[in-house]
Amino acid sequence: MSGLHLTQLTLSHFRSHKRAVMELDPRPVAIHGDNGAGKTNILEAVSLLSPGRGLRRASAQDMTRRPEALGWKLSAVVQSQGRFSEIDIVSEAGAARQVRIDGKQAAQTHLARLTRVLWLIPSMDRLWIEGAEGRRRFLDRMTLSFLPDHAELSLTYEKAMRERNRLLKDMVREPSWYLALEAQLAEAGVAIHHNRQHALTLLRDAQAAADTAFPTATLALLCDMPETAEEMRAALADNRMRDLQAGRTLIGPHRADLYGTYAAKDVPARDCSTGEQKALLVSLILANARALAADFGAPPLLLLDEVAAHLDAGRRAALYDEIVGLGAQAWMTATEDNLFEALGDRAQYLTVREEGGVSQVLQD
């Protein structure tokens, strides 16, 4: 299996980093420094090497370094599937970011041919107890890691739904206005639903086959969805009067939810302790990584922001063992370097310091 890892990462005017150059090898990357020093900004930069809006879902303008606001650039050399590729991502003066791969303009979706990136960040800690939107996004990130075309399907679906909702809010009753939009919604919606089910099957298989210190999560997709596009078109047409009253589309994959259970205890994830919920999330990220190692041919880049601080020493050591065993280049942050003790020389280390409003990256 050929590994996936970054051999170089350069940030220019990206958030708190005026300029940072990191030379890397395939080992996990342990990043430590004070709160606010700019550690998570490095992880965010790596997250942009995959399709989508990155781990903070920020606009290109929000990522530019202040007060200059000149725009920003990140460059990476990626070893993937036995070859090296150069990726440049640029935003000029807050404009939408542009991607170049080996010097040629490319769509964001092309990044998925070279990389797979998964992340676990503190804002996801409340995944099981907050709204369904966050769980759908979590599921779609996992689905996208297996099926890069899932992003394009989602965009098609969202655009058609916005147009249909506009007609509903304007109380347009003429059926002919809806037919083409509902055909698009049906085709994309059913494909999205099937993609999500496929991703959950891969995750279940990976969890079942794993030797892991983390608890297994039983996952179920809650969605009242027709199985075929033809059935979906008929359902949208039948539901049109109810949707008119609501002013929005009430059936489809945008109404789905992800239900999780702590398998060994048969307890809903939302009712588990904070520590158990975190352990379940770690378990799912590891399962996703294992499934990708088999599906993509290499484990993904893992971005784990402040994960070590929320695990006891035993679980922390187990996490590091599993990451190293998987062969993943995991980018991990912590405020204290002793949280990485169990990694020893199995990792490479970066220290991030903030001096005069500028982040400095030192390689140990």
Q: Can you walk through the features of this model?
A:
35% of the residues lie in helices and 24% in strands. It is of the alpha/beta class. It has a domain at 1-116 and 298-364: Rossmann fold. Strands 2-1-4-5-6-7 form a 6-stranded antiparallel β-sheet, with helices on one face. It has a 6-stranded mixed β-sheet with strand order 8-12-13-3-14-15, with helices on both faces. Strand 14 (348-355) and strand 15 form a beta hairpin. The chain starts with a strand and ends with a strand. The relative contact order is 0.18.
CATH H-level superfamily title of one domain: P-loop containing nucleotide triphosphate hydrolases
| pLDDT < 50 stretches | none
Largest β-sheet summary: 6 strands, antiparallel
Q: What topology, given as strand order, has the largest sheet?
A: 2-1-4-5-6-7
The helix-strand sequence is: EEEHEEEEEHHHEHHEEHEHEEE
Ends: how far apart?
29 Å
What percent strand? 15-25%
Multimeric status of the protein:
single chain
Instruction: Work out the radius of gyration.
Output: 22 Å
Secondary structure class reads: alpha/beta
Q: CATH first level of one domain: which class?
A: Alpha Beta
- Please, what is the average pLDDT? 94
Shape call: globular
CATH topology of one domain: Rossmann fold
Q: In the CATH classification, which architecture of one domain applies? A: 3-Layer(aba) Sandwich
Instruction: Count the E strands.
Output: 15
Number of helices: 8
